[in-house]
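We modelled the chain as a single entity of 380 amino acids. Its sequence is:
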Amino acid sequence: MKRRIFAPEHDAFRATVRSFLDREVLPHYEQWEKDGIVSRDAWSAAGKQGLLGLAVPEEYGGGGTPDFRHSAVLAEEFTRAGAPGLALGLHNDIIGPYLTGLGTEEQKRRWLPGFCDGSLITAIAMTEPGAGSDLQGIRTHAEDRGDHWLLNGSKTFISNGILADLVVVVARTTPQGGAHGLSLLVVERGTEGFERGRNLDKIGQKAQDTAELFFHDVHVPKENLLGELNGAFGHLMTNLAQERLSIAVSAIAAAEHLLEITTQYVKEREAFGRPLARLQHIRFETAEMATECAVTRAFLDRCIEDHADGELDAVHASMAKWWATELQKRVADRCLQLHGGYGYMSEHPIARAYTDGRIQTIYGGTTEIMKEIIGRSLLG
């Protein structure tokens, strides 16, 4: 079905993103996969192309376009290109809202210009070795020392962890337990006591640097508190809907693209003297995946539209996230199966999509957490 959520300006932006990918990303991506990290030059190029800080006001160097449909276009095209390593969505859609929505005027003028031109790469540090979805388990803590916070603790699985110049750290700022004693502290590159561990060896998304971070008696200036003291829980909950929708958008785009690749493959690949596409089982498999993708796309486009209008709630974002990512996982598995041995080869797009996409049901809140949120809204 024809999609109805995009206007001509979104189509023009899509063409810009595709051109950027062809010119600045795809020629280098294999090397980035081998290196385990993308080039900082790619971030600078993205900034020059206007792909960073889409929703940041123009006075700080941003695009001044808070319409989420631009972010959706960016996520879709990077997914179709098989290039998740350059984590523009994390930068724009997850961390950007914290800086623009919570930052003081001084913080915005200090950080947002670099955020938008690519010279200031960002990360957010929530997950710890013993705390993932459960924020109450966070042990990283900061003591009030008058003119600064003294930060101690560690984080893991931090996307952009190696490249990041600015890390938004979730830390406990009260000795009491619970999730409501957490604050957001911004730690900048080069701060004494802030160290990065190894670039973690993942099964997929090799080009995306994911690291352990360590904080040992780090002096964080008082002016680097982002948002309200002890208000991190509320801040995090406010922005989670957009984060989960962003993941869902890339998930349905991945499923659709894998189906396209596989449909073409089974038309060309022959077995027993005729194309695979002539076999009833293949037709049924393709029909099922196409129908699931079409139904999911209709729901996702409605969520994108609602979010652009400021109407998407946490429950429907959770529905979108768990359903679309689980669909992506199923489609990747079935498409790999239909490719036979070729699908298991690392150089094949299907194999890479299979491993790159596996994380989708985990980060941003696991499928199980999404179902808990939905169930709680219905049953209390």
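As a brief sanity check on the tokenised model: The chain has a mean pLDDT of 96. The two ends are 37 Å apart (CA to CA).
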